[in-house]
User: Which sequence fits this backbone?
């Protein structure tokens, strides 16, 4: 029996999540006897709850294809976690009402570990509310912290951006260091896991190249050791490049970025590990420094996406559809790396019960003994993920992104009140 | 008579200053009867004073060519301004000693307006110390604030980076705005002139696209007007993207970035306009926000350099050499834009006396009436400068930059003591 599909984007977006969306839409078209329309949720699962469904069949083929080179979440994402069935049954009942009203039998949820949890809960609707649904979570997160999968679509591109930016900025600092800036700090994302900070190590050609210090959230910050290391590097090398994860914590387990700085209003300053470290280096070492915080730039930099990452993002979309029409439920297409020397990978399904809410941190074997670097093993893991370029088309000097029509399906139900 | 040439990089570097260096070196080879070797100053003019001269003839042809795609200053730059002849005659005498010792008759100084001042002073050595020198300043600055020239090599690439990053990040914010971030702030360089902040306007396809607010150093910051504008944009658009120049000043003429915030040590916080504005928006409007500071990333991002800018950078190098062998002294090759509708340009010489120490700010006609945007006239000026891509080669997932040998010429003089 032919059913429609629901696809939604969830959590922080990436430079290639729309490539996954394009794959879901295009692959679905191949199974015309099983899949009718693909409705995209406006702002993630909120679109399902509010019955705000975007009819992707109204978009031109070129618009769908252009999603492959457009960063951000084209249909809107959200930070919204479903409560458990017991805590908030009415949310699930509403979902089933919307699914019924629009003949939705396939549910694709494109997100990280919170989203895997939501998808896992939705997958249980079949059993608990006797509504048949094939629910597939599709991996996506620059944080690279999903369990089971070898890596997460979105991460490889952010990693390529970070490695490239670290390399480029370090050449800048190197040339200024004789009479000006001695220390440069780049703050990257990764609140709980250090994958992104670790990827800066790919900037090196020689061992003595930048970054000279990597600060990971897995390692508690030791101010004395850190300052000694900075001093040492500047003495030996003339300058020092530091890449710091936003999630670095002090010995008391408090984010450095939330340390006791006050703003003009007397309120705690929200952050920035980079300006915090810059202040420390200015005061304690009196070394001229510069700092950058890449924030959203690193996860939206489609212009420097990794080709490998893009292929991953497309493949998980394709396989999600295949799993759904095969009748799978409560699974995620994950990336499995072959054990051979040459990098290769395949997609297999993994149960969401093993993925939901689990956070994969950098393993100890990836972190150097002094805690300021990553190991050769980490480099071996990371390197394949940033290989290949996948430039978007440019128009008028900037990457071209085609705007979608975003036509919403006519509502059939009363408004949702949460 | 055959003379050697001295080339040096000065001030903040750019993603294409090494392309100028490559052009100077390659063009010089064409005039074998007039130009012997090209010596590059190690760390700018300090290399001349310290007699630290890098023999560029020791580099392979591929190494010189690879300079065209390597950001930073390959020979080292410096922040060092010669005093006037009257104030510090011994510096000039030392320069002449070094020039004599190494048969240097051509002096190429690649920098901004401070460097044009230094080059202007060096050009007067001919008259004041009777040592014949052909001194040519070559324009370079991401700040785009040099007088006479239509634009400055380095700026177009930074502008392309800023426009691209603003566009990409705005797609990210747009997708998160329903349940998360409402305001995104990107801080860009430009301490005294708003050219870089202005270039973010090139991110727009439609008038309502990001950036929604541009804060320029030419316009004093008005907190009430600013907060009202942010509130308005978020109300109408769902989110607001702000691009702020690091040089924005408050009504008292003080940098916002140096406002009265204190760090953990009780010292004034050095900066960040972006975190300052973020704090303001959190406290006064209670809107969730994110901020990025691109710092060195924007001026070293060779991976997203503008092809037009790269061509400018190469052309000024080529013409500098031609002017020198024609016997010109105290000039700079500048870029002149044709008056035709289709963008075209040529290089002509301009006297350094008109360029040294002059700072070209955004003209009033480029700034919108409310002070939060640029005009159509500004867009018309800026747009051609970011056209075309000039991707570097990638190796192992990151842009490939070949390392130079940097062989120094044997010293002939006693050490320099300043």
Assistant:
């Amino acid at each position: 029996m032919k059913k429609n599909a629901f696809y939604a984007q969830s959590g922080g977006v990436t430079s290639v999540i729309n490539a996954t969306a394009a794959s879901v839409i295009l692959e679905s078209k191949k199974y015309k006897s099983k899949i009718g329309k693909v409705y995209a949720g406006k702002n993630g699962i909120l679109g399902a709850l509010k019955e705000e469904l975007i009819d992707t069949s109204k978009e031109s083929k070129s618009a769908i294809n252009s999603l492959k080179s457009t960063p951000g979440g084209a249909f809107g994402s959200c930070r919204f976690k479903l409560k458990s069935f017991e805590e908030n049954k009415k949310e699930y009942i509403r979902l089933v009402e919307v699914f019924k009203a629009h003949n939705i039998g396939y549910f694709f949820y494109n997100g990280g570990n919170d989203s895997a949890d939501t998808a896992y809960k939705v997958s249980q609707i079949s059993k608990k509310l006797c509504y048949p649904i094939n629910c597939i979570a599709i991996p996506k997160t620059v944080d690279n912290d999903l369990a089971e999968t070898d890596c997460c679509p979105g991460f490889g591109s952010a990693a390529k951006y970070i490695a490239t930016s670290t390399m480029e900025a370090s050449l800048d600092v190197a040339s200024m260091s004789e009479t000006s800036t001695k220390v440069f700090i780049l703050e990257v994302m990764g609140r709980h896991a250090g994958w992104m900070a670790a990827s800066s190590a790919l900037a090196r050609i020689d061992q003595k190249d930048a970054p000279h210090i990597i600060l990971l959230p897995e390692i508690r910050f030791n101010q004395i050791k850190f300052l000694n290391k900075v001093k040492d590097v500047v003495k030996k090398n003339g300058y020092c490049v530091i890449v710091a994860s936003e999630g670095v914590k002090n010995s008391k387990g408090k984010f450095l970025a939330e340390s006791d700085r006050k703003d003009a209003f007397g309120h705690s300053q929200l952050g920035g590990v980079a300006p915090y470290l810059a202040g420390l280096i200015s005061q304690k070492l009196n070394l001229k420094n510069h700092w950058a915080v890449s924030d959203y730039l690193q996860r939206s930099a489609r212009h420097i996406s990794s080709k490998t990452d893009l292929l991953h993002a497309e493949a998980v979309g394709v396989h999600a559809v295949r799993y759904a029409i095969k009748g799978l439920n409560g699974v995620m297409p994950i990336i499995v790396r072959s054990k051979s020397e040459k990098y290769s990978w395949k997609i297999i399904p993994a149960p969401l019960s093993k993925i939901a809410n689990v956070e994969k941190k950098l393993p100890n074997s990836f972190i150097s003994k002094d805690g300021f670097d990553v190991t050769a093993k980490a480099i071996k893991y990371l390197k394949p993920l940033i290989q290949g370029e996948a430039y978007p088309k440019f128009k008028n000097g900037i990457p071209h992104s085609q705007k979608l029509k975003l036509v919403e399906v006519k509502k059939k139900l009363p408004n949702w009140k949460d």
Observations:
- DSSP finds 13 helices and 13 strands in chain B.
